[in-house]
Amino acid sequence: MAQILVRDIEDDVKKRLQRRAARHGRSMEAEVRDILRDVVKEEERPGGGLGTEIAALFSGIGLQEGEEIPELRGYTVKSPFEE
Q: Quick one: average pLDDT of 59-68?
């Protein structure tokens, strides 16, 4: 495995990394490896805008191709302002 040395990390950043690692029950070194792994994975995903991301979240949900919307005959629609 490769190694990397990062110099001149701000004290505040180091403290926050230590706290984060402690919350996850691992060493600071393991925490940094996990953070770097996640960032690289995100870059591998195909890019897209907000609409593309929302569409991906809901893909496969709802009507299937060729499926029709059922009619709601006989149902009375009430205004939310009526009592």
A: 79
